[in-house]
Amino acid sequence: MLGWLHIAVPPAPALFGQLLIGLINGAFYAMLSLGLAVIFGLLNIINFAHGAQYMLGAFCAYLVLNYLGIGYWPSLLIAPIVVGAFGMLLERFFIRWIYRLDHLYGLLLTFGMALIIQGVFRQYYGSAGQPYSIPDLLAGGQDLGFMFLPNYRAWVIAASSVCCFGTWFVIERTRLGAYLRAATENPTLVQAFGINVPRMVTLTYGFGVALAALAGVLAAPIYQVSPLMGSNLIIVVFAVVVIGGMGSILGAIVGGFALGIIEGLTKVFYPEASSTAIFVIMVVVLLVKPAGLFGRTV
Predict the structure, then answer these.
(1) Chain Cα centroid distance, residue 11
(2) What is the tens place of the pLDDT at every residue in 179-230?
């Protein structure tokens, strides 16, 4: 009579394997959402170029490896610095002129930037992905009995968690973070205390872009380095930001990891809905709490 309610329970290795994939995806969702939340929350710019900047981080690691022989570990520092500096140039010469305009102008400008960046790399490298090897130190994995845990994937989850919650601590619990938040609400008053607000804004945008680049370096050994790798991810990341709350740092982190896990579980129990589960959750959240789970209603 109740047979229609029966759900087949997958084997433990399959279940934990999908949970691991969900955590990996969630780690990237959290880092990218965090960068978006930092930029929007502190600068009020909807940075649609974030996916292209994530791709730039992966390509920076790929290029310095193939042309300069610089491996994975230095790239974790080099790529965020290089791409973050590029982001600061974009902010200084393009984005700064639209701060006082409607959010739509920022979205259109950064969307155009994303198309240009992706188009340049697609012209030279095509749509096919380029391989990037896992560093020797993180090769192999651990047999936990109920599943096999690759070392590199464990590293990605740990590195993403440290980076995300470290950023949250700096912005929410330190004097620097207080200055940043104050500069967005009353820049004239903050500047009266001798703080260079335009420089702070530029550095903040560069930091948000650097987070995307760092995520790109972490993703390079897992996903192939491709000009389209950011465009395939950015829509999901925007959904995560909306669910967590636009501009909410904690919402971006918690929402990213949680939705990655939910997506992984959906692939186990109802694979047909795995590609739409996040968007269904987004619709429900917007209906119940339009500001997002951690967002503040204005």
Answers:
(1) 31
(2) 877 776 677 777 777 788 888 889 999 999 999 999 999 999 999 899 999 9
Q: How far apart are CA 150 and CA 139, in angstroms?
A: 8
Cα–Cα distance measured from residue 259 to residue 275, given in angstroms and rounded to the nearest whole number: 12
- Residues paired with residue 253 on neighbouring β-strands, in sequence order: none
60 - beta bridge partners?
A: none
Res. 110 pLDDT band, cuts 50 70 90: very high
Spacing of C-alpha 144 from chain mean position: 29
- Closest-CA residue to 64 (of 85, 82, 88, 90): 82
Alpha carbon 201 to chain centroid, angstroms = 20
Q: What is the pTM of this model?
A: 0.92
Q: Which helix (H) or strand (E) holds 203?
A: helix 197-219
**What are the tokens at 17?**
């394997």
* Token couple for 186: 């009353």
**Sequence letter at residue 287:** L
**Domain residue spans in the chain?**
10-139+147-288
Provide the b/e sequence for 254-280 (b: ≥16 CB within 10 Å). Answer: bbbbbbbbbbbbbbbeeeeebeebbee
Q: How many whole angstroms separate alpha carbon 200 and alpha carbon 179?
A: 9
For the stretch 253-298, pLDDT in tens is 999 999 999 998 898 888 888 889 999 999 999 999 988 998 766 5
For 92, 159, 213, 220, the CA distances from 142, given in Å and listed in that order, are 47, 18, 28, 21
User: What DSSP string describes 151-200?
Assistant: HHHHHHHHHHHHHHHHHHHHHHHSHHHHHHHHHHH-HHHHHHTT--HHHH
Q: What is the CATH number of domain 10-139+147-288?
A: 1.10.3470
Q: What's the confidence (pLDDT) of residue 11?
A: 65
